[in-house]
Amino acid sequence: MEPQRQLVSGSVCLLPPASCLSGSLCRLPRNIVQITHYKQYPPDISKVYSYFECRSRSEGQFNEVVFFGLQYLLKKYLAGPVVTEDKIQEAKIFYQLHFRQPVFDEEGWRKILEKHDGRLPICIKAIPEGKVIPRGNVLFTVENTDPDFYWLTNYVETMLVQVWYPITVATISREFKKILAKHLKATSGSLEGLDFKMHDFGYRGVSSQESAALGGAAHLVNFCSTDTVAGIQMVRRYYGCPMAGFSIPAAEHSTIISWGKNREKEAFESLLDQFPSGPVSVVSDSYDIFNACKRIWGDELKERVMERSADSTLVIRPDSGDVAETLLQVIKILEDCFGCSLNSMGYKLLPSYLRIIQGDGIDLGSVDEVLKKLRDKGWSAENVFFGCGSTLLQKMNRDTLNCVFKCSYVETNGRGMDVWKQPVTDPSKGSKRGRLSLRRNSNGFLETVERGAGKPEEDLLVTVFENGSILQEYTLEEIRKNAQLWQEDIIPCQHNQDHLQAEQQHIMNAVH
Amino acid sequence: MAAQDFNILLASDSYKITHYKQYPPDISKVYSYFECRSRSEGQFNEVVFFGLQYLLKKYLAGPVVTEDKIQEAKIFYQLHFRQPVFDEEGWRKILETMLVQVWYPITVATISREFKKILAKHLKATSGSLEGLDFKMHDFGYRGVSSQESAALGGAAHLVNFCSTDTVAGIQMVRRYYGCPMAGFSIPAAEHSTIISWGKNREKEAFESLLDQFPSGPVSVVSDSYDIFNACKRIWGDELKERVMERSADSTLVIRPDSGDVAETLLQVIKILEDCFGCSLNSMGYKLLPSYLRIIQGDGIDLGSVDEVLKKLRDKGWSAENVFFGCGSTLLQKMNRDTLNCVFKCSYVETNGRGMDVWKQPVTDPSKGSKRGRLSLRRNSNGFLETVERGAGKPEEDLLVTVFENGSILQEYTLEEIRKNAQLWQEDIIPCQHNQDHLQAEQQHIMNAVH
Questions:
Q1: Which residue of B has its CA nearest to A43?
Q2: How far apart are CA B398 and CA A186, in angstroms?
Q3: Stated pTM of the model
Q4: Which fold has domain B106-327?
Q5: In chain B, what residues touch A407 (CB-CB under 8 Å)?
Q6: Inter-chain contacts counted by CB atoms under 8 A, chains A and B
Q7: Quick check: A32 pLDDT over 80?
Q8: Which residues of B touch A232 (CB under 8 A)?
Q9: Given a cut of 60, is residue B390 above it in pLDDT?
Q10: What residue ranges do the domains of chain B occupy?
């Protein structure tokens, strides 16, 4: 019996009967309206030139971005002969049904097949991947190389704009690295182990397998620590690195609670038995983290723990409660049970067989807060590792770094013209004008030169794709080098703040 | 059949490969469940279940383990853990990571349906009917999601509630996995590049060309490249006024603002259009632009702003029929697993032939406690849905259906059936005192049903 609820009588969309579409999915993904744009450009237009940037914001958290991920999109979706007769036919049928009128430019697409063997007559220039660039600068440009295909430049916008995601993950991941480096340096005097301080836990929390691959890979630009296998695979296939990330055996709640509520000790002990060498991580909050640390680890299994070598650390994992407070209580209990020593900077260190990983509720704010509170209590950042899921791989969007793709230059009847939008309703949505290049000016700052005024020899943009071929590739090794932290990322001081402020001012001025 | 080049042994959090060594000895069954945990405060009280069929068909059905894949995984994990932990038997317990990703289509379908409730409410109140509801919210999110595959999943989830989309990948996903050849429609539309490429002083020529190129059927024209108010007043409302008025009701010009305050810009635009083109009153006494003219607002739209816009329009006497909406990131990207607290937890095991209910209950966060034992879902005597724990449910009352067993998909759903299941209820559209009590009582009951 159902409660008193009535269905709304409204149109559930009834579809006209249509024969099932056969054939493989066109490898070139499409945004629908852009199918109709070939009819909308001015007559005799022969070139459309567009660019991608992460627009500046006067206030805002992220001043610079890590460029990453374009190579994946080029290799996977744009390279080689991507237009075939089958795909044209499939698209034709699709769009007839979808628009309920014939708007598809069959002839235009067939010409790509006839003139260029199905390879895309566009040219893409980009800054090298891994480079860290201030907001508001051109990151890549796209233009057609054959005047018949002016419409192709913005056709690929939808797909290329998705590079916002690996850029944003790589950027946020690097921001984590700055915070961790700062605390690690301050409390231990070195950056040893930095690359393993932030572990990617985000596989289940992203929106798809492919996003896991992209986001997971982007994190590996900055760190070597991950459980997101898809990211490692992506980097292996598209960025030439066979094994970019590592992990350790670790428990999850099901492997603890399946022993029964009164057998948590047996569950823990079994883990020590099964993984006698190498580090092992044990989630310890299934019932009571404090009891688990004090009574089980700190007493009943204390000797087993102390037996483990420095290469076979027990890493205890809380997974609930206030992020900082829980950690502080746990480390206090462990200090009481196992003792500690002082490192060369005078900060406290748990015995080498014992560490903690905090993987719950970690974001840029909380990781800074936790490390600060630990430091205030005299603890080194060496004691703790971090894990991050959604914040690293999902809690972001195209507006996080204001990623956009805009047309800035066209040629009609052989004449070039700078174009731009400048909505009176929102000046921040204005776009750059003309052909663009990126240079380092005489003060050493990166800046975008507009209106075609840039000198080719100074241009840092590199042709990466042309007429279906990839002309420049980057390995993860090169990318990691490009994305390294700078000295001022780790030790901000008055001098550098001025330096950074001056740079920011200059960048702001450089926008028109 | 699952995709050939996909290796299920490499599709989970790597630590799960080590779990076969961590369960108690002689364990023979592990039983887990998925839920969207309750929150006492929070925006979403109910969720639309969607997307599992895609995961089953794409990744789990058929023979997914081959010798090649086992060997590939073995080599991978040796390098990744820097010690041999991979066990060819032990991988079976790793499905959680992949299945939990169903949080995404569930969340998109749920948020999309929340949009539908708001739109239906205003449409009903200002026009007396729900005609055209399915076209009121257009998916603009393709470029703003994190990957092509997410676009397919999210785009498909929106099509559970609406028929209006530019995210082709979603249509394709539904065609392949949910038996619907064409689940969504669109119209020819401009973008800024097709306007500004004419030059700053030729916006009128650009607009006119659009009317020429698309003489029949609706056409959408983004009009804020330089000055939306000038474009509406001078170009549409004067220089091209006759061309606009020529268009039939089937060939509507849909004007698109794309910047500025969401509600204010819309109100100013509709005022200008009223001044230039006039309006009429519908059967409920609300104002309607002429049938050849409509507006689509696709900038800054979320659940809050769409409600606010329609409310303000209504306060000024305008029907919701005048406006369409587009949504990108909010529909497909601005969400995460915590939006609906989606989790996968073990609740029952069998060891040495003996069954045992298991659960977590961290003292540090009671809300993270999990359900216990074998579970079923039933409709109780008051008509409310509730989960029965500890294996106490009666099989004949259980609403859970076996959809997958031993590599085979046993139950499939078409989009048509899914759309019917996800239809709005009367009280979604017209909340009134009686129904509020009814809803509150339901919520209370649900809260009580958690342990």
A1: B198
A2: 59
A3: 0.91
A4: TIM Barrel (3.20.20)
A5: 192-193, 196-197
A6: 408
A7: no
A8: 76, 80
A9: yes
A10: 8-97+341-413, 106-327
